Amino acid sequence: MPRIPAVSPKDAGLLTKLVFRYAARRFGAVPEPFAVAAHQPALMRAGGIHEMLVEKAVKHLPVNVRELAQYRTAVRLGCSWCIDFGTMLQKHHGLDIDRLKNIDDYATSPLYTHQERLALAYADAMSDTPVSVTDEQVAELEREFGRAGLWELTYLIGLENQRARSYSALGITDQGFTSGDACRIPQAG
Questions:
Q1: Is the separation of the CB atoms in 100 and 91 below 8 Å?
Q2: pTM for the full predicted model
Q3: Which of 14, 79, 129, 186 is buried deepest, with most CB atoms within 10 A?
Q4: Cis-peptide, bond into residue 130, ω within 30° of zero
Q5: pLDDT tens per residue across span 8-22
Q6: CATH of domain 9-57
């Protein structure tokens, strides 16, 4: 149960109801962060627009790299909602979610590629307090993904830090997206 209650559809204004309807169609359920953010509808809409723009803008990173980096960030920060939703997104991108059980061993596990290991280590370093990213790490990521890919990775990990810290602060926890009950997004395939 979040620390502040979700806004119910019956108590929402017209624009918020439209956002809820879109989210329910897209995700099978209104994500709880949306319903909590609806207490400040202008910021909820700004956040939604931002998320859609980011989704369209990311073009240089492989989907497995970006999804794993965001997932790792959620794990490091302990955001159960982000872990739940991120697992569901990976599943629907056709990625192997069984290997997520071994994410803590990514540095030595044969389940992860070289690119994935680099991105996961970067997610760890960016999620440390204080941030522990090194010049060498950034240089290696730039060689691997190019400057645009490095910036995308940095941006996505930073965004996931914002999500995870915000949702955790407000007590927003997993919603059952990985159970298949809450989310009816058609699977890739």
A1: no
A2: 0.92
A3: 79
A4: yes
A5: 999 999 999 999 999
A6: 1.20.5
